[in-house]
Amino acid sequence: MTIIIDIATRKGGVNKTTCTFNLGHSIALTNKKFRVLLIDNDPQGDLTIATLGSKENLKTHTSELYNEKTPEPVFIRDNLAVIGTNDQLTFIQDKGFEVIYNLGAALENYKKDFDYILIDSLTHEGYLFTAGLLASNYVLSPMIPEPFAARGLKKTFDIVDKVRKPRLNPDLKILGVLLSTVPGNPTTLNKAVIDEIKQTYSDLVFKTQISKGTVASESPAYLQPVIEYEPKHKIGQQYMALAKEILQRIKR
Ligand SMILES: Nc1ncnc2c1ncn2[C@@H]1O[C@H](COP(=O)(O)OP(=O)(O)OP(=O)(O)O)[C@@H](O)[C@H]1O
Ligand SMILES: [Mg+2]
Hints:
CATH topology: Rossmann fold
Helix content: 40-55%
Strand content: 15-25%
Strand order of the largest sheet: 3-4-2-5-1-6-7
CATH architecture: 3-Layer(aba) Sandwich
Bound molecules: adenosine-5'-triphosphate, magnesium ion
Number of domains: 1
Structural class: alpha/beta
Low-confidence stretches: none
Distance between the termini: 14 Å
CATH class: Alpha Beta
Shape: globular
Mean pLDDT: 96
Radius of gyration: 17 Å
């Protein structure tokens, strides 16, 4: 069965794209038999730029999924492919609320070819955000140890609750909360936020945390995940550990 994971938090700049990018590579590297597809569902196109180098001149793109087409994914390793986005995705929002169902319907066509589909979500609540949640089996919410991010997490889970209505996506599950950009020397405030998140979300918080490090910002400029850009760096190792933790969690 294909597992679809929406990487979503109602807060900007909390490492959603960096997580989707590194985790996609890590799942693909964990087992060569796993076929992984990344979908850029954010018109900003950061995932597209990290994987394909540019948003310009894409032969196929995410807005086609919303227009009932089946764009050909672009393979960036033997078992990892991406459907990137250009600015046209912005205009999908103007088509009316029915588009919230289109992404999930379109992804049905990819289930025979892929085992894991990761969707990089945009931050703003709207039709694209809802479409990502409706299309998915799981939500993974990255967050950084800062007070505003914790509030964004609460908003995310309130929306997940709304989406779990019988006629929407009653089986949607929270895969987990990923603490990311955790400093080597956390401040008192960082520690307080991490403690609060662990208390509130307990077992949902992944054991694996992602450390703060400039390598995470650098590697996408070379179209490489951290594990390949700097194989010995702990952040690359952490994303590999996260892939394993997720695969275990899904098995349960
Ligand atoms: N582990 C890390 N350590 C330090 N910086 C990081 C780390 N991971 C990601 N970053 C940087 O943090 C910033 C935000 O990350 P990213 O773009 O992945 O977040 P996002 O949630 O997708 O943002 P947006 O809401 O704009 O889509 C980027 O500059 C990214 O390079
Ligand atoms: Mg992003």
